[in-house]
Amino acid sequence: MDQDTSYTSAMNATLRPSTPADLEIHVAHRLAMFRTMKVGTDEGLSRMAEAFRPQLRTWLHTGQCRGFIVEEDGRAVASVLLLMRDAIPTPVTPLSVRGYLFNIYTEPTHRRRGLAARLTDAVLDLARELGLEILEVHASLEAEGLYQRLGFMPTSEMRLVMSAGIKTPKQWKHRHQP
């Protein structure tokens, strides 16, 4: 497919807000996202999906989590979720709610068409409407450039894995050091 056709295809794709009826789309995209990044075993992914499903169901029903889906020919090909989560007020912002972008996924056959940027732009517009002042995202190594182009900056966040049974994903090991 040539570049002009890909661009036209992306522009013809339908972007719409998620509803609670889209639960299984978001669960499937979460599983596919981690499989693509080669994070987790089949057993671990299954456990994650079973724990994630009721959590996301609640968030979608209460409005604590909102999302968008891109459809092409009536089929979901990309999606994103925005979680409003509690945060500690800081000198940077006294607001105690921050936005967390997650579950950002595009099917492999639809990548490099601007769908992730389109989804992220929609989330940024929603975050502005909601009055959020800070958004966070844990980007894959491949997606860091996209988020930096959209204005996201690396932070000083660090993580300690406390359980001996948890294998540290390779994505955590190869971050740029400040």
Summarize this structure briefly.
The protein is an alpha+beta fold. It has helices at 3-12, 23-36, 42-62, 115-130, 144-149, 170-173; strands at residues 14-17, 65-72, 75-86, 97-106, 135-137. Strand 4 (97-106), helix 4 and strand 5 (135-137) form a beta-alpha-beta unit.
How do the helices and strands line up, and which of them pair or pack?
Blueprint: H1 3-12, E1 14-17, H2 23-36, H3 42-62, E2 65-72, E3 75-86, E4 97-106, H4 115-130, E5 135-137, H5 144-149, H6 170-173
Parallel strand pairs: 4-5
Antiparallel strand pairs: 1-2, 2-3, 3-4
Q: How would you characterize this protein structure?
A:
The chain is globular and about 45 Å long. Helix 2 (23-36) packs antiparallel against helix 3 (42-62). It has a 5-stranded mixed beta sheet with strand order 1-2-3-4-5, with helices on both faces. Helices cover 40% and strands 21% of the residues. It has helices at residues 3-12, 23-36, 42-62, 115-130, 144-149, 170-173, and strands at residues 14-17, 65-72, 75-86, 97-106, 135-137. Helix 4 (115-130) links the parallel strand 4 and strand 5 (135-137). It is α+β, with helices and mostly antiparallel strands.
Q: What class, by secondary structure content?
A: alpha+beta
Compute the gyration radius: what is it? 17 Å
Order of helices and strands: HEHHEEEHEHH
| Biggest sheet: strand arrangement | 1-2-3-4-5
**How many strand units?**
5
**Residue-averaged pLDDT:** 86
Please report which band the strand proportion falls in: under 5%, 5-15%, 15-25%, 25-35%, 35-45% or over 45%.
15-25%
Instruction: Detail the poorly predicted runs.
Output: 1-8
Strand count, sense and barrel status of the largest sheet are:
5 strands, mixed
Helix content: 25-40%
Q: Number of DSSP helices?
A: 6
Shape: globular
* Alpha-carbon distance between the two ends: 40 Å
